[in-house]
TrEMBL record:
UniProt-listed SUPFAM superfamilies: P-loop containing nucleoside triphosphate hydrolases
Residues of the ArsA/GET3 Anion-transporting ATPase-like domain: 14-281
Single annotated GO MF: ATP hydrolysis activity
Name by which UniProt lists this protein: Unannotated protein
TM regions (residue ranges): none
Short name of one Pfam family: ArsA_ATPase
Organism: freshwater metagenome
């Protein structure tokens, strides 16, 4: 297998999506990839679509991040920016771009149902994450977009959300609902009325009125939304987009990593890069068995030292065995999958300096196999 490094990926990709369960350092890895790219002279933006503020914490920002990227001061020939998804602002921007007139955009954004939709539904967050990625992808300020996904089994739902939205907008019932002025409801009222009554009984007549006015405001915008959704979907599956599964040597983390690998396989998305983070350090060239033999042949403090070293090596060997088994399973689905391993830091990562140290490990040839 030819060696393909994460550093090479950071030099050439247009989009990098990191995924993994909680507690594996995924956000730190995403930020470190940003540092690698910036050092290569690229203009990179790292966006987190996780509602938690882990990215700001990881790079030591005291103020919360927002939709508009904020530049991080690092020693590099390129630039590194960071951002945090704001669902409402992203939705508003999409409405402004799709609306036929500014007045129609205002009408839609002031609608009560729209305000609820843009704040609360998880499906809305999924699509807006994909939409924001697409916006940044087409932003001339940046050469590379790195996406930090939430630590959830459903973190990859945003990959399917553009197609789901496109299918939804093409559904005949939706077309009837969003075009009452074109005569749709006059012909379909017998079929639609029971549906509207059922919705009204659950959400109330006031909320239903909000839905109706939202749909009237949306009339004529569905084509633009559909085309945009399909363009986002193409970007996520383009040859310029790379996916990185981040894991750690614990059984729970490896089990969740298997889930992400299976999801990418189901979605027919290629996986070429795996990062094994928080690995115990490998001390010396001997094995735990060697150190136990040394301990048996020594006495006092020397024997105690060899015993302690043997215990540390047992931890490292177990971690390596777990990762080796995981990458073997992964390569059944993705034969080119490339593994990069980095050791656990003695303290939490909470500054751009520690992120830069992690980036050096990720970029080191010795970390890859």
């Amino acid at each position: 297998m030819s060696e393909i490094s994460l550093e090479q990926m950071c030099h050439s990709a247009r989009v990098i999506v990191t995924c993994g369960t909680g507690g594996v350092g995924k956000t730190s890895i995403a930020a470190s990839l940003g540092v690698i790219a910036a050092r290569a002279g690229r203009r990179v933006v790292v966006i987190t679509i996780d509602p938690a503020k882990r990215l700001a914490d990881a790079i030591g920002l005291t103020e919360s991040l927002g939709n508009e990227p904020e530049q991080v001061q690092i020693s590099a020939s390129g630039e590194m920016w960071v951002s945090m998804l704001d669902v409402r602002e992203t939705f508003d921007n999409l409405v402004r771009s799709a609306a036929p007139t500014p007045e129609r955009a205002t009408e839609m954004m002031e609608n009560s149902f729209y305000r609820s939709l843009s704040r609360s539904l998880s499906g809305t967050r999924d699509y807006m994450a994909a939409e924001r990625l697409y916006e940044l992808y087409n932003d001339e300020r940046f050469d590379l977009v790195i996406v930090d996904t939430p630590p959830s089994r459903n973190a990859l739902d945003f990959l399917e959300s553009p197609e789901r939205l496109a299918r939804f907008l093409k559904h005949p019932i939706v077309r009837v609902l969003i075009a009452p002025g074109r005569g749709g409801l006059r012909f379909a009222s017998a079929a639609i009325t029971p549906v509207l009554k059922a919705i009204s009984s659950v959400v109330g007549s006031d909320a239903l009125a909000g839905v109706a006015s939202f749909l009237r405001a949306f009339d004529g915008m569905e084509k633009e939304f559909t085309q945009r959704a399909l363009a986002v979907a193409r970007t996520l599956r383009s040859d310029d987009t790379r996916f990185v599964v981040v894991t750690a040597p614990s059984p729970d983390a490896l089990r969740e990593a298997d889930h992400f690998v299976s999801e990418l396989s189901r979605l027919k998305i290629d996986l070429k890069y795996v990062v094994a983070n928080r690995m115990p350090p490998r001390i010396g060239d001997t094995s735990s068995t060697d150190q136990m033999n040394f301990a048996r042949n020594a006495t006092g403090d020397v024997a105690a030292a060899h015993t302690i070293l043997a215990g540390l090596l047992v931890d490292a060997e177990r971690a390596e065995a777990g990762i080796d088994e995981f990458i073997a399973r992964t390569r059944v689905k993705f034969p080119p999958a490339h593994l990069t391993a980095v050791t656990e830091f003695p303290t939490d990562i909470h500054s751009i300096e520690s992120i830069s140290e992690l980036a050096e490990q990720l970029a080191a040839p010795s970390s890859a196999k």
